Amino acid sequence: MHDKLMELIAWYRHTLETGGYPLIVLLMAIESSFVPLPSELVIPFAAYYAHAHGQMSLAGVVLAGAVGSWIGATLMYWASRLAGRPLVMTYGKLFLVPPEKVEKAERWSAQFGNFGIFASRFLPVVRHLIGIPAGIVRLNYLTYSLYTLLGSAIWCAVLAWVGVQAGQDEALMKGELHHMLLWIFGALAVLGAIYYFFVHRHMQAERK
Fold first, then answer.
1. Which is more confident, 206 or 61?
2. What are the extents of the domains in the chain?
3. Average pLDDT over the chain, rounded to whole?
4. Which label site among 7, 16, 51, 79 has the fewest CB atoms less than 10 Å from its CB?
5. Alpha helices in the chain (DSSP H)
């Protein structure tokens, strides 16, 4: 497992050297579609690479990540808007989007509206699928784009900060497993804090 992980990191670093910002845009566009490619892997290492080598800027990494997320979310939005709910519910499972996931995203969208578009950028599963109900109900595309870009930019900025901080851990960079676990738990704690402040408190206020 350790060797495979180091091979993946080496591949990504080499690909970043040649792909730069367009590669980040592409990977984050994929991440915001139905393909489960975690942004938690894409952005932190790109940010560390930018910080350590200076060939890219941290602001550029965050911007590329946000733009890529918006592109992927746009594709999901327009595909769902043009296809309509019956086709999405019938054939979505062919693209790893079964009906139960669509229904979950629909409930989230119905309950939280525009705020749900923004907050979804911080949440796994919902982040990938929120464009489906937004497209089905024909949510205003400019509004959808604005909240998607804003949420994505904040999320990418958080991941970039984590990447820079992690890059200063020499043991982590050498691939020591226990340090990887510490950073994973730390990242989960950050995600939990973001969820609490951006989502949970809003949900509690809505219920009241």
1. 61
2. 2-207
3. 77
4. 7
5. 2-31, 39-53, 58-83, 85-91, 99-120, 126-129, 131-136, 141-167, 170-173, 177-195, 201-207
